[in-house]
Amino acid sequence: MALAAVGGINDGEVEKEDFLAAYGTFELDPSSQAFTTKTPMWFASMTKFVTSVAVLQCIDRGLFGLESSDDVDRLLPEWSQPQILAGFEDGQPELQNAKEKITAGRLISHTSGLAYDFHPGLLLKWRQSRGEGPRAMRGTIPDVFTTPLLFEPGTGWDYGPGHDVAGLMVARANNCTLEEYMRENIFDVLGMDDTTFEPRAHHDVAARLPPMVGRPLPDEPLSDEIASLNSTRNLMLDHKDQYGSGGLFSTAEDYLKLLKSILRNDGQILKPETVDTLFVSTMSPSSDAALNITLANPAMAAAMIPGEPIVGSPGAGEWTHGLLGLIGLISKEGGLQAGWTQWGGAPNLKWWIDRKGNSCGIFATQLSPPGEKRHQPMTHLFQQEMAKRYRRP
């Protein structure tokens, strides 16, 4: 695993030194090469944060609007007339024309109505009614994600491919690939040289990747767990499109550079006034309610808020969602301060930015299964130590 964190700086203050640490080896064999903070990894859903930043840059530059459905009609015509999957009648899907519209803001806050088709539920049943299996990440973005919505845009919350569609919006608005856009406007600006959607072509990243490792779940072979996550990683290595929800490969040191730029509001990536909007909720009351139902599900909570009590249980936190990720609404004693934002990735990675507490950081592994519990206390110990180390006097 690799850990990286840093604090903000006040006017006239000497820049604080980054905290960088890594533990373990590539394989269970202790004689294999050591993990470092420069070790490339598949960052999975940690990609969403970077895609959200790219979307907000385009909004800063006037290329499209955060809440403009007209811009979605112009740049994403495949999603301009969405339908809602209301249920099934005699095994056939019932589709209704949506009354609300998809917007860039709804795409990056998981309130568009789009969902992944590999989760059990209505969308998987819709695929099966067409004689199909899950197709997410197995084709181009328009090919695999022009699916029915699960709710009226803006009225619910469901973890889904909104960032894939939003990344396509960025690419089309700039007449380039998402990789080309991010390299020019984010990666090269901050010196994120080992971050890419193209690990086989860029800096030999693919050849430097560690294998996935894992701890077994009860009654499930360890090899099956690792194979499942590896198969998804392989889809990203040999991708059909540049998926803004999960396609990036990066390092702890690279990723920290972007977190740090947002924490310090240094103007390199986003306008200062835009950064101020990243730590406030974008949710309607009904979307917040749907999010909290999700976080009350033990399986979903284990992956989305690892190590935290599920919503509705004793000691549980309170959560909402913003333009970058989840927002914690209750301060942790000796830890992160209310208003911090965070997200994670399937191989047990996690980032946070805590502006009030003056820290940001990343905890990165290539560990299976998602939400693996035995390591989770380490993420909280790391956050507590960094909150203490970088707290302003």
Q: Describe the biggest sheet?
A: 7 strands, antiparallel
CATH topology of the largest domain: Beta-lactamase
- What shape does the CA trace take? globular
Number of helices: 13
Distance between the termini: 30 Å
Strand percentage: 5-15%
By CATH's scheme, which homologous superfamily of the largest domain applies? DD-peptidase/beta-lactamase superfamily
Q: What integer value in Å does the Rg equal?
A: 20 Å
| Mean of all residue-level pLDDT scores | 93
Number of strands: 13
CATH architecture of the largest domain: 3-Layer(aba) Sandwich
Spell out the helices and strands N to C: EEEHHEEHHHHHEHEHHHHEEEEEEH
How many structural domains can be distinguished in the coordinates? 2
CATH class of the largest domain reads Alpha Beta
How would you describe the overall organization of this protein?
There is one protein chain. Helix 1 packs across helix 6. A 7-stranded antiparallel β-sheet has the order 2-1-12-11-10-9-8, with helices on both faces. Strands 3-7 form a two-stranded antiparallel sheet. The chain folds into 2 domains: 2-44 and 176-390, DD-peptidase/beta-lactamase superfamily (Beta-lactamase); 59-174, no CATH class. By secondary structure, it is an alpha+beta fold. Strand 8 and strand 9 (326-328) form a beta hairpin. Helices cover 34% and strands 14% of the residues. The model has no long low-confidence stretch (mean pLDDT 93). It has helices spanning 47-60, 69-75, 104-108, 122-129, 141-145, 162-174, 178-190, 222-237, 252-264, 272-276, 285-295, 298-304, 376-390, and strands at residues 2-7, 19-22, 41-42, 83-89, 92-97, 213-214, 249-250, 319-321, 326-328, 341-345, 349-354, 359-364, 367-368.
